[in-house]
Amino acid sequence: MSEAVGLRQRLFGWLGDAAKANADVLPVRIGGVDFSRTPAQPARVSDIDLPLLWVTVALLAWGLIMVYSASIAMPDNPRFARYAHTHFLTRHAVSLGIGFVVALLAFQVPLSTWERVAPWLFIASLVLLMAVLIPHVGKGVNGARRWISLGIMNFQPSELAKLAVLLYAAGYMVRRMEVKERFFRAVLPMGLAVGVVGMLLLAEPDMGAFMVIAVIAMGILFLGGVNARMFFLIAAVIVFAFSMIVMTSEWRRERIFAYLDPWSEKHALGKGYQLSHSLIAIGRGEWYGVGLGGSVEKLHWLPEAHTDFLLAVIGEEFGLVGVVLLIALFFWLTRRIIIIGRQAIDLDRVFAGLVAQGVGLWIGFQAFINMGVNLGALPTKGLTLPLMSYGGSAILMNLVAIAIVLRIDYENKVLMRGGRV
What's the whole-model pTM score? Predict the structure, then answer.
């Protein structure tokens, strides 16, 4: 018996030594706690989601080409006579350069740091949203005060607010996970935060950005596990609120009526002008388009061709094939980002997973709205096409959001290899 006990002690002693020797390489996760001792390794090319990166670069490059095509004739208009033909191309390229640098820096920031600074980023976005309403601080264009001039670019605080609300909502759901079944303790504080942002955006006015932020917050609440009855109650309240905003605003009502009948004598030269010329541009493109640079509608017929209605120029120059290809790229991009978020949640990284899925909702929903407006399926709304339309702050924040998703995917891979982040 004593020999058997001695053998058992030696066997377990050997197994204990082996476990200690392999503690640095075995990814053991018990109850959401990572017991791995392997230090995080520097990012390698294989750690980066290259398909996601290359699809993003393809959309950025295509957008740069189309911004040049859509804006090349604008200096012929007396309003833009002092601009060179490459004015918007140059500014867009500078925005891309700045965006790449900031995105590279954002990729270096661990998700734990983003979670820690999320409330402060949210407060900073509120301060900037208030600052843009101050005379001589906020810059007004076409009756809206949405920008702060930074010299080399005009910064739009609403774009920062989208990322800030996304990060804050994800962190909020992680902190409130234990009370997600209680409406007032789980949902009401977040609803008040989004409501404050909404009031500031409507004061600019920028209802489009408010819609995107509301969808991001709603999506994160749903993905975070809020009770389904609560979710549908919140959705009903939001739909009612937006309906009342439209009904109490004469010019918003006119947009709805123009969307329903853009070809009428009353609307064709008014609120339906952009939509009717967008449909004409897409109709001219037919199957294969008129060729790059061959658009007629961009020649001072279609307003904002290089921003909100860039898809109409793509449809005219590349036809149905180009539009379908673009839709497929955005669908793939959104789906891939959502999958990265699901992988993070499977690794017990709830904050990272909700952030990635929130970015997918942001890009996917905004692209859906922009495409719907250009194709006449939705009422006209001032939202740009993500990663493609002209706009420095939008491009900047889109690239930062993509960089954060790439960081989440990198950390997922490190953990799956047994490392730690």
Answer: 0.85
